[in-house]
Amino acid sequence: RRGEMAKSTQLIDNEVFRAYATYTAIVLLKMMLMSLITAYYRITRKAFVNPEDAASFGKGENAKKFLRTDPDVERARRGHLNDLENIVPFVGIGLLYALSGPELSTALLHFRIFTGARIFHTFAYLLPLPQPGRGLPWAVGYSVTLSMAYKVLKTAWLL
Amino acid sequence: RRGEMAKSTQLIDNEVFRAYATYTAIVLLKMMLMSLITAYYRITRKAFVNPEDAASFGKGENAKKFLRTDPDVERARRGHLNDLENIVPFVGIGLLYALSGPELSTALLHFRIFTGARIFHTFAYLLPLPQPGRGLPWAVGYSVTLSMAYKVLKTAWLL
Amino acid sequence: RRGEMAKSTQLIDNEVFRAYATYTAIVLLKMMLMSLITAYYRITRKAFVNPEDAASFGKGENAKKFLRTDPDVERARRGHLNDLENIVPFVGIGLLYALSGPELSTALLHFRIFTGARIFHTFAYLLPLPQPGRGLPWAVGYSVTLSMAYKVLKTAWLL
């Protein structure tokens, strides 16, 4: 049927792809939020790395004392880098996974667990929770990406 | 019409997707340029982090003195990391946005503003410009990605 | 022919796209491996950055002495960041390249050289090999991405 074909030519009409788009947008927005959290800590803790940023908060010698590291700023930055290290593989492998023809329910399970795990990971990092409060959600998200990579390689394998 | 369908099956023939491909390639090439800028500063300032790199510029104790940080190197590295933090969401959300059926003119507006903002951001970081010379282009790029994410979630929403 | 059209509507049935999916999954899995290597060095060298991580290896003052940097940990982290800087452009530009209609043999050549170069780069970084043992595979991977970007811009150009 023409409708069927037209449907399959529009990626965004495919339900698995729509789910991928939704969770990828959410998880990338969550990653972007780390920039605001870092900026918030930099401003409230008055801890900057660029002299031109510190200059907004004082002049001359007074500005120099704001060129320092702060534990909360560094923690937010580590959370941000950890997001990059884990969300980039999810976005890349997840796209290929969404195109490899998984069941919608299986795909949703992967996307939901990953997204939940990464949101929990951020709270665990920022609070911080004692271990394995942060290690566990990290491992869960990592495993979801591995599971999607397995499906991609099984479906697409062409070396 | 067959032509119409054939067109829609080839992503690269879709004008919005072509615009996405063009600006994504440009902005990723700009990010890759940061590696060369960092390498340039490392070599001209003789400031390395790996002993095997410093060894090319001196032997023994002489090489050790090149294992140091340099303000220009660190500045280029921060610009590179800021690119990763902002260009990765643009590439991921931008792809979904391009597939969500926006008007070509609206899509071009998003892609052009983001690309211009990030190129300006790099100049502002490296010169450096006084604030808000760097903060403003950062916020503009960030807002463009938020706007695309809104369109993606409105079109694709399937939780 | 219907078969032909159906084929082109399913990205994952396209041979160039299958090759892209295979190599992208491999190279992202390789990048994810860096997390495990960093964790391995942190645990065996007892060198942590988060107090809540060090707390698993000692109490009070005893835990504090594990809050330190270690050369092997830092080396693995630098390798991980270098992967992000280089594999992100490959994944993004590679997707557009795969959709720009290259010959399968040409595409495979690009994907294989990039993947081989990045695996070699990781060994060169971790061992470490003397230069240009690490610089050369870095430049090879970088050049492959530039070559793909050229093809993308030539095919898709719409500014």
UniProtKB/TrEMBL annotation, chains A, B, C:
It is found in: Endoplasmic reticulum membrane; Mitochondrion outer membrane. It holds the Pfam family MAPEG. The chain crosses the membrane at residues 20-41. It is a multi-pass membrane protein. Its EC number is 2.5.1.18. One of its GO terms (molecular function) is glutathione transferase activity. Homotrimer; The trimer binds only one molecule of glutathione. Belongs to the MAPEG family. PANTHER family: MICROSOMAL GLUTATHIONE S-TRANSFERASE 1. Conjugation of reduced glutathione to a wide number of exogenous and endogenous hydrophobic electrophiles. This is Microsomal glutathione S-transferase 1. It comes from Motacilla alba.
